[in-house]
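Deliverable D2.4 — example input (structure tokens):
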């Protein structure tokens, strides 16, 4: 004889109210509970998931949170200003600096930078420090340049929304004659 499952009926877990235990069990034997969300949707969730706080809603809370985060972000021409302002190195970066990659078969470093869904080749360097400096210069030109122009444009647009409609923010990056150029 196994132990009797805890009666969760009527208990509230976040936005979910447990109604009744079902016959369904997960691979660990946890009972699925039929729950009603505050939004009106119904969902079956394991007792362990409810008790440990893994489930707070039918999924509507996650959608709501995503929507709220999207509303707080400033997405301009496919670029998120907040992401550029708070950019960090990726955990899987092997060189120690974002956009700087050591080539496998030689002791050289390739430098790239991304902007508006495109990747731009900055150059190939023999020295790591030179590669990092080139990447920082490209960030200053593109990322910091974009943030500065957006802030200036945003201030004018706040003062006069009609001006903002008539003068959309344009910040284009092009690679010409081996150099990255910005057109504002």
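Example output (designed residues):
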């Amino acid at each position: 004889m196994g132990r009797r499952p805890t009666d969760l009926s009527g208990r509230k877990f976040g936005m979910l109210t447990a109604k009744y235990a079902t016959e369904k069990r997960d691979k660990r034997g946890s009972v699925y509970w039929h729950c009603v969300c505050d939004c009106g949707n119904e969902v079956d969730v394991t007792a362990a998931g409810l008790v440990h706080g893994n489930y707070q809603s039918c999924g509507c809370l996650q959608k709501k949170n995503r929507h709220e985060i999207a509303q707080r972000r400033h997405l301009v021409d496919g670029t998120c200003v907040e992401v550029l302002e708070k950019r960090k190195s990726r955990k899987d970066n092997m060189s120690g600096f974002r956009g700087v990659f050591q080539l496998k078969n030689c002791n050289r470093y390739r430098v790239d930078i991304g902007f508006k869904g495109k990747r731009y080749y900055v150059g190939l360097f023999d020295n790591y420090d030179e590669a990092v400096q080139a990447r920082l210069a490209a960030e200053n030109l593109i990322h910091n340049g974009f943030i500065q122009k957006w802030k200036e444009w945003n201030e004018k647009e706040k003062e006069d929304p009609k001006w903002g409609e008539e003068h959309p923010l344009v910040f284009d990056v092009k690679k010409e004659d081996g150099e990255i150029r910005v057109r504002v």
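The mean pLDDT is 86.
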